[in-house]
Design brief:
By secondary structure, the protein is α+β, with helices and mostly antiparallel strands. Helix content is about 60%, strand content about 5%. The protein has a four-stranded mixed beta sheet, with helices on one face. A three-stranded antiparallel beta sheet has the order 4-6-5. α14 crosses α17. It is flat and about 80 Å long. It starts with 7 loop residues before the first helix and ends with a strand.
Length: about 425
């Protein structure tokens, strides 16, 4: 789902995997969190990707090269370069039936990212070393995806070296391969580089065709932030001069809000819906799951954070645990009690302490899934209640704003979208900068 795009379904699968695996896995829990981060990164949800990647790192998992590529997109180039170099110098290896052993296959995605990051940082030698290693790995495993990655790396280096015709030839071939492999995000990303190569060769019309194709592909993948970045990297000839962005204010001051838009300032009473609106305005284009929005407004952790078990209880219409899971927990709890007894009998204090920690973990999980009279806790209506309540609060707030500031009310009605996900999507041709 992540490779074929769009990544909305991939994100939902990763969220479900996180919820299902959270009680059973500890260190390995970083794996599904990393997949969640990768899906969000491709959507252009940089804040959501960062939350997932950092949570994976907190679980002792290496979320690379995703986190390094995120830092690059955020403009933190030196930090991205240091991250990718550290990941290559200190291979992350954990016994697993699913992941390839530490070696060429594990190293390839790191090398692919290193070429891009090193060129952005001006480290030519690191980029060449990474490209050469990637070529050798592709020759060893004879994989079309690896071979196309190596071809793209060569094209990037050719453009960097000023070999415009060679760069266009290599990059065009790589783009066609990505399209043939049905990997639209890779094709769109490389088309931006191809547009830059045509621009460098003086062919503005072809450059704009490639840039337009890339941006259309990103928009079809529900990844508009990447399209916006593409236009900044290789601006279209018709928009070389960026439009001046209107500076607006949506600031909380005690129990009131100061709101400035379209040259007019009003003061309004702060409401719950105002706090939802504040978060949406702070990150235009980001899709906020309604539970994320409600949880943060209440001061809780966002959905997907393993530290917040209770906020997940409102997400779906199922039991927290099914009967088999509850029985498995109880069996593990009984075994842990036996471990504690044996350790205390042998005066093995360290073992007893570890066993008690395991027991407390299991008890906490059972409490989350079992209610009064040993009844299974269900999580059926919480999500719908949250969605209905948040939508009602936000619409009431928009009505109040429209009464006092009609032009802002009309703007927000057009750009605020509600449902399972809440989003603020202003017109990219008339961008607005909000100070919150």
């Amino acid at each position: 789902m992540r490779l074929r795009g769009p990544c909305d379904e991939a994100e939902q699968e990763a969220l479900l995997a996180c919820e299902e695996l959270r009680p059973w896995m500890r260190r390995e829990f970083g794996w599904p969190l990393t997949e969640l981060g990768n899906a969000r990164l491709r959507k252009g949800d940089f804040a959501g990707a960062e939350e997932a990647f950092l949570a994976a790192h907190q679980n002792a998992w290496l979320p690379q090269p995703g986190l390094a590529l995120l830092r690059l997109a955020q403009g933190r180039v030196e930090e991205a370069l240091a991250m990718i170099e550290s990941a290559l110098e200190h291979p992350f290896d954990i016994p697993s039936k699913e992941r390839p052993p530490s070696g060429g296959l594990r190293r390839a995605p790191l090398r692919e990212a290193q070429v891009v990051i090193a060129l952005a940082a001006g480290d030519d030698q690191a980029a060449r070393t990474a490209a050469n290693d990637l070529t050798e790995i592709a020759q060893m495993y004879q994989s079309r995806t690896l071979q196309t990655s190596a071809l793209a790396a060569k094209g990037r280096l050719a453009l960097h070296d000023g070999q415009k015709c060679e760069a266009i030839r290599l990059l065009s071939e790589a783009v066609m391969e990505w399209v043939s492999l049905r990997m639209p995000f890779e094709a769109a990303t490389l088309r931006i580089v191809l547009a830059a190569a045509h621009r460098a060769a003086g062919d503005d019309s072809t450059a704009e065709l490639e840039l337009d194709a890339a941006c259309r592909a990103f928009e079809a993948l529900n990844a508009r932030p990447w399209a916006d970045l593409a236009r900044e990297q290789v601006p279209s000839a018709s928009v070389r001069t960026a439009a001046t962005r209107e500076q607006c204010v949506f600031r909380r001051e005690g129990e009131m809000r100061t709101v400035t838009f379209d040259g007019r300032t009003v003061r309004l009473k702060d409401l719950k819906g105002m706090r939802y609106l504040e978060r949406l305005l702070a990150e235009p284009g980001r899709d906020f799951h309604v539970l994320d929005l409600v949880a943060v407004e209440r001061g809780a952790f966002p959905v997907g954070d393993p530290a917040d078990a209770s906020s997940m209880d409102a997400q779906c219409g199922l039991e927290v645990f099914d009967s088999k899971a509850r029985e498995a927990y109880r069996q593990r709890l009984a075994e842990t009690e036996e471990d504690i007894a044996e350790a205390e009998a042998a005066n093995d204090l360290h073992r007893a302490e570890l066993a008690r920690a395991d027991r407390q973990f299991l008890i906490d999980e059972l409490r989350r899934g079992v209610g009064l009279n040993d009844r299974a806790r269900t999580i059926g209506d919480g999500f719908e209640r949250a969605r209905t309540s948040a939508t009602r609060s936000l619409r009431y707030t928009l009505d109040r704003i429209a009464q006092h500031h009609p032009s802002l009310g009309e703007h927000l009605v057009r750009t605020i979208h509600t449902g399972t996900y809440f989003t603020y999507k202003p017109d990219p041709r008339a961008r607005v900068d909000w100070k919150t």
